[in-house]
Write a structure and sequence with these properties.
Elements (H helix, E strand, L loop, with lengths): L4 E6 L7 H17 L1 E6 L1 H8 L6 H15 L7 E4 L5 H12 L2 H5 L2 H9 L8 H4 L1 H10 L5 E4 L4 H18 L7 E4 L27 H9 L20 H9 L2 H12 L5 H28 L3 H28 L2
Parallel strand pairs: 1-2, 2-3, 4-5
The structure holds tryptophan and iron/sulfur cluster.
The site of iron/sulfur cluster has 14 residues, from helix 11, helix 12 and helix 13.
Length: about 325
């Protein structure tokens, strides 16, 4: 039987934004129709950088999972759970750590980059170095065939494949080597023109209300070479216009391009049109999210059922692992 299993995790950073909407989430939604999916909140991975500041993690998980569910990630189709509720991830992590050369981890470009950039935190820990080993465990504990990831995660997935190969070489064929499914993401810019990110404070969240969304859209940077309405503008230089491509229908957009270049439409009016489209597009999502959030036990119930199913599957793999390892 063809292996149609997919595993993907997201570190709980709280509410998701439009960048997630057009990247990871849309992709998960498609995959869910075709594959057997395991989607989880990678809270242990959060600990690799947030070990000194753990209070926010459980709220972040709730907000993130509400976004998943409101978006259409369906607990009837997919297994939705929290990493730390499935102890087999940690058990396999321990075993894989025995066979993973430290040099593989030290040469990982993401490792070097994060250590250089996140200087406010002491990341010279065993756990941070072992981030890819835990990720490998997350994936192969379900014997997944494919892993949807962004470009930045490709080196990690390569380490997963190497670890799986090494295990199979040492103890016999237990794990398939999971393939990366590169997620195509349109680059979603934040209000200030940098990549949209919660940590930059430039994000429009899926769960923002209509009023906040409007305010945020109206504050977006436009063509900086167009100080006055009477100056012709250029949509290709305009940050706000990157969202027009995602939210405003083609015909209307063509009209805007022409009247921007012809200095007929002002940026305020132009962004009002955009804001309305964004609000209209997100309205059903937001209504659904409010409904789900009003049920006090829903998220917990979904996560408990997911953990149960995931634990069963992971437990099956661990039996094979023990048999192969003879320990
Ligand atoms: N490292 C991933 C990220 O930061 C999150 C993650 C953890 C993950 N375990 C995973 C993704 C397993 C895919 C599969 O985005
Ligand atoms: Fe951007 Fe619209 Fe202003 Fe043109 S009119 S610069 S597309 S906001």
């Amino acid at each position: 039987m063809e292996n149609k299993r997919i595993v993907s995790g997201m570190r709980p950073t709280g509410k998701l934004h439009l960048g997630h909407f057009h990247g990871v989430l849309s992709n998960w939604l498609k995959l869910q129709q075709e594959f057997e999916c395991f989607f989880f909140a990678a809270d242990w991975h959060s600990l690799t950088t947030e070990y000194a500041n753990t209070e926010g993690i459980s709220d972040s998980i709730r907000e993130m999972v509400l976004d998943w569910l409101a978006f259409g990630i369906d607990p009837e189709k997919s297994t939705i759970f929290i990493q730390s509720q499935v102890p087999q991830h940690a058990e396999l992590n321990l075993i894989l750590s025995m066979i993973t050369p430290v040099s593989w981890l030290e040469r990982n470009p993401t490792y070097k980059e994060m250590q250089e950039n996140l200087t406010a935190k002491d990341l010279s820990t065993f756990g941070f170095l072992g981030y890819p080993v835990l990720m490998a465990s997350d994936i192969i504990v379900y014997k997944a065939a494919r892993v949807p990831v962004g470009q930045d995660q490709i080196p990690h997935l390569e380490i997963t494949r190497e670890i799986a190969r090494r295990f199979n070489y040492l103890y016999g064929e237990v794990f398939p080597e999971p393939a990366a499914l590169l997620t195509e993401t349109p680059k979603v810019l934040g209000l200030d023109g940098r990549k949209m990110s919660k940590s930059y404070g430039n994000a429009i969240f899926l769960s923002d209300n209509a009023e906040d969304t409007r305010k945020k859209v109206m504050s977006m940077v436009t063509d900086v070479q167009r100080p006055f309405k009477s100056d012709p503008g250029e949509p290709d230089r305009c940050v706000a216009f990157t969202l027009h491509s995602l939210y405003v229908p083609d015909e209307k957009r063509a009209e805007i391009v022409a009247s921007c270049r012809g200095a007929q439409i002002g940026c305020v009016d132009c962004k009002k049109i955009l804001a309305q489209s964004v609000v209209d597009t997100l309205a059903p999502f937001r209504a659904r999210r409010d409904e789900l959030a009003a049920d006090p036990s829903l998220v917990e119930d979904v996560l408990a059922a997911g953990a149960h199913k995931a634990t069963e599957e992971a437990g099956r793999t661990m039996k094979d692992v023990r048999a192969a390892l003879k320990v």
